[in-house]
Write a structure and sequence with these properties.
The complex is a heterodimer of chains A (about 250) and B (about 375). Chain A has one domain: P-loop containing nucleotide triphosphate hydrolases (Rossmann fold), CATH 3.40.50. Chain A has about 250 residues and is an alpha/beta fold. The longest helix of chain A has 16 residues. The mean pLDDT of chain A is about 90. Chain A is built from nine helices and ten strands. Chain B is mainly alpha-helical and about 375 residues long. Chain B has two domains: about 230 residues, no CATH class; about 110 residues, abc type-2 transporter like domain (abc type-2 transporter like fold, 3-Layer(aba) Sandwich). In chain B, helix 3 links the parallel strand 1 and strand 2. The chains are: A alpha/beta (about 250), B mainly alpha (about 375). Chains A and B meet through helix 2 and helix 3 of A and helix 1 and helix 8 of B.
Chain lengths: ~250, ~375
């Protein structure tokens, strides 16, 4: 059905912390150029899954491949091919927006000319030129998040992981950020994004819905709405929750 | 190498933009050095002295003048009764009393051996002992001068010269018994330890706290690059610090250094493996800057107390003396004082810098291995 190349693939991926299973046998495939949304309540296991895929955590069991590399044995190779934006804003507040970009450029081993070029491109891409020389701590949260996205895209990775990139900002800033995500996908990049806002799920090409560490539904938003006969993803999500509670 | 260079540049930008950091690095050490340098002193000066002269002769006045003319003593009063002396000492007015009995001068001239009474408040044993030493020194000198004068007067009578054993003391290395000469090198060691260990621990934990460490972990940065990039800035800062305090030691306290600066810097470098290693170790076992600060202080207080900085190691109970061998500061404290006072050589200090370096490398390696480039 799908002839596109696979960007991210997992099979029965599991993470246990002591007796608690945060991610329970998750299997999924994400294709190149796709915006894949990962939905679920807080504590459903979204962040843990992303952390395993980005090499921050070692899985307990199962398989995973990112950009063709094995998450068990090739974590360092994966790191060159992914961008990552963590759940909480994590850039240096006491550096300017530009200095943050320069720093990450240097860390990724870009040469000075590439760093300058990429900075110009990305400031234009995320619309941050007027703030380039402002101290990061003085930027509004919405702009900080755009800066974080710019940092994640700096080394031109084919895959970006965005962990709740829009939490804490107002609806207009969220809409602007999603426009950026679209533009990013149009550049041919795979976007793996987690969220707990159901309206954002509508923007994704495909979504996986997570509950208690398990994927309980996977597919395009339109298909899921059809299948559960609901008009919004919000209703789909509530319905799925009800069903899984009943099962339990 | 490039990523390390960017890490160092970033760290310096951050340090020089944070006023608290700047004051911890540059102002606090100066204050600590000034305060500790002047306050930690084993020297005894201005001992409050009370005098009861029942003799009132020319000789007794000469003795008392000797006490009035030295800054070791400060005459706070004259008493005419034993009761008065008792009260003065009891109420902390005086620490020492000198009682010259009636007929002292006349008995001395007659060739008898009259006695003088010295009473010292023994609560502060160290001060009392030192003050008593000064006092007997003054009496002794007076006695010698007096005998000489008599000898000159009696030269004609050709009396046989008295056979006496005279102790002539010479102090080596610290000629004028300046306490700073001994304390300042120790303070330099303490400051260098605090800066390198605490700041490196705090800076690493801060990255953990604000989430940038997580961001760095998902970059292709190698572990050794990350560790070096975080450690080198503090190595450099510590050397700047060392330069500043050494300069202050000379300009403010007039301390001279007998040995070579190169040797001092080289051995400081070896010592920093231990302190920077401990800094990394602390950052791996703590999660917030407060915790890191607390644990650092725990280490630093232990290290200072067990280094011989205040209490000489030879004065400690046997078991504790053995414990000091696992304290890297112990070695560097000794090395620093040796180089400052005696200009000791690398070979001579071998028995100190060898264990110090071994200890430093073990700590450093262990900490770097423990510092995982993964979360939990």
């Amino acid at each position: 059905m799908n002839s596109r190349k696979i960007s991210v693939q997992t099979r029965d991926l599991t993470k246990r912390f002591g007796r608690f299973t945060a991610v329970n046998r998750v299997s999924l495939q994400v294709y190149e150029g796709e915006i894949f949304g990962f939905l679920g309540a807080n504590g459903a296991g979204k962040t843990t899954l992303i952390r395993m895929l980005t090499g921050l955590l070692k899985p307990s069991e199962g398989e995973g491949f990112v950009a063709g590399y094995d998450i068990w044995r090739q974590a360092e190779a994966i790191k060159r091919h992914i961008g990552y934006m963590s759940q909480r804003f994590s850039l240096y507040e006491d550096l300017t927006a530009e200095e943050n970009l320069t720093f990450y450029g240097g860390i990724y081993g870009l040469n000075r000319r590439d760093i300058e070029n990429r900075k110009r491109e990305l400031f234009a891409h995320v619309g941050l030129q007027p703030f380039a020389n402002q101290m990061t701590r003085d930027l509004p949260l919405g702009f900080k998040q755009r800066l974080a996205l710019a940092c994640a895209l700096l080394h031109d990775p084919p895959i970006v992981f965005l962990d709740e990139p829009t939490s804490g900002v107002d609806p207009r800033a969220r809409r602007n950020f999603w426009n950026l995500i679209y533009q990013t996908a149009q550049l041919g990049k795979t976007v793996f994004v987690t969220t707990h806002f159901m309206d954002e799920a509508e923007y994704c090409h495909r979504v996986g819905i997570m509950h208690m560490g398990k994927i309980i539904a996977l597919g395009a938003p339109g298909r899921l709405k059809q299948k559960y006969r609901k008009s919004t993803m919000q209703d789909v999500f509530i319905e799925l929750h009800r069903l899984s509670e009943e099962q339990a | 190498m490039q990523p390390i260079w960017y890490l160092i540049k970033k760290e310096f930008k951050q340090v020089f933009r944070t006023r608290e950091m700047l004051s911890i690095i540059f102002i606090a050490p100066m204050i600590q050095m000034l305060v500790l340098g002047f306050a930690i002193s084993t020297e005894v000066k201005n001992v409050s002295l009370i005098i009861a002269d029942f003799d009132r002769s020319r000789i007794s006045r000469e003795i008392l003048q000797a006490f009035e003319h030295t800054d070791r003593f400060r005459v706070v009063g004259y008493e005419t009764s034993y009761r008065g002396i008792e009260t003065a000492i009891h109420r902390w007015h005086a620490q020492m009393a000198i009682i010259i009995p009636a007929d002292f001068g006349r008995n001395l001239q007659r060739g008898l051996q009259p006695e003088v009474q010295v009473i010292v408040d023994g609560l502060d044993g160290n001060t009392a002992g030192v003050a008593l030493g000064y006092a007997s020194g003054i009496f002794q000198r007076f006695g010698e001068v007096w005998l000489q004068q008599r000898a000159v007067a009696r030269a004609a009578a050709a009396s046989p010269p008295g056979h006496r054993v005279v102790v002539e003391d010479r102090l080596w290395y610290n000629l004028d018994l300046k306490p700073e000469q001994y304390m300042i090198p120790g303070i330099v060691v303490v400051l260098v330890t605090i800066i390198s260990m605490m700041l490196s621990a705090m800076s690493l934990v801060r990255e953990k706290e604000i989430g940038t460490l997580e961001q760095l972990i998902v970059t292709p940065l190698k572990r050794y690059q990350l560790v070096l990039g975080k450690i080198l800035p503090f190595l450099i800062l510590t050397f700047i610090e060392l330069g500043i305090v050494l300069m202050a030691a000379q300009l403010i306290f007039g301390i001279r250094i007998a040995g070579s600066y190169t040797l001092l810097a080289g051995l400081a470098f070896l010592y920093l493996f231990a302190t920077l290693g401990l800094g990394i170790l602390i950052s791996t076992i703590t999660h917030t800057q407060q915790q890191a600060m607390f644990v650092s202080w725990f280490f630093i207080v232990f290290m200072i107390l067990m280094s011989g900085f205040f209490v000489p190691i030879e004065n400690m109970p046997g078991v504790l003396q053995k414990v000091t061998y696992i304290n890297p500061m112990r070695y560097f404290m000794y090395i620093m004082r040796e180089i400052f006072q005696k200009g000791s050589s690398l070979q001579f200090l071998l028995k100190d810098w060898l264990p110090m370096t071994a200890f430093g490398l073990v700590i450093f390696t262990f900490s770097v291995l423990k510092f995982q480039k993964r979360l939990t």
